[in-house]
Amino acid sequence: MSLHLQSTTTLHNGVKMPWFGLGVFQVEDGDEVINSVKWAIEHGYRSIDTAAVYKNEEGVGQAIKESGIPREELFITSKLWNSNQGYEETLQAFETTLSKLDLDYLDLYLIHWPVPKLNKYKETWKALEKLYKDGKIRAIGVSNFKEHHLEDLMTEAEIVPMVNQVEFHPHLQQESLHEFCKKHQIQLEAWSPLKQGKILADPTLTKIAEKHGKSTAQVILRWDLQKEVVTIPKSVKQHRILDNSNIFDFELSEEDMQLIKEMNREERVGPDPDEFDRR
């Protein structure tokens, strides 16, 4: 597929979501996040992904204001934290997020984790459906949901999630989850696409990168796109924000794709969604 930095995928409700964006996990509020977001937008990024638990929504909002780019050209995502799950709690937490970002609406709002022990994601989803119907969010989705969480949610959901953002990288390819999402028109999105830097020295990736005159990070991010997975690498360094997005002038061959496919170990760097219940 011929893509550029502002290319989009169309979610099942017709909303267009950029294939590529900036994540701001573990980016400090204040100058660090403001600079990261402004650099990204200056370089042509249009998608920014934050979350309540990152505690940097205010800085993201300020950077959006200072960027000078019209709000409707940007795609802003945030996520509901575990301690705010439940119907009324979700409605309140959403208003707090919107207020911190100083925005009138969100493009995408996600349930951050399923937290099976809480057993509240169905009522939480009902609140997201209400916010969506009220026009406060253009698309709604989940994060870190496995197939069985999605199946359970969909038994009572009126609206199928538009996005599932999960840990996804060459060591954790989640093929069956990816197929399930495709079948239900749920767009898969990758967090930690570079496995927090732990695979950048991998010899298979290094060899492919040398062949294309690219970095291993660029190879992985290009692989995401060719797998039809939205990706949001984070960086606080201006040159890396630029480098990460420099992936639209080459294409991985079928052989490259196969070599990366063989790297799968179903190995996580983050927590297992069945067990994670931090609040």
Automatic annotation (TrEMBL):
Residue stretches spanning the membrane: none
Entry keyword NADP: yes
Keywords per UniProt: NADP, Oxidoreductase
Signal peptide: none
A Pfam family that the UniProt record links to this protein: Aldo_ket_red
NADP-dependent oxidoreductase domain span: 23-264
Family: Belongs to the aldo/keto reductase family.
Name assigned to this protein: Aldo/keto reductase
Source species: Gracilibacillus marinus
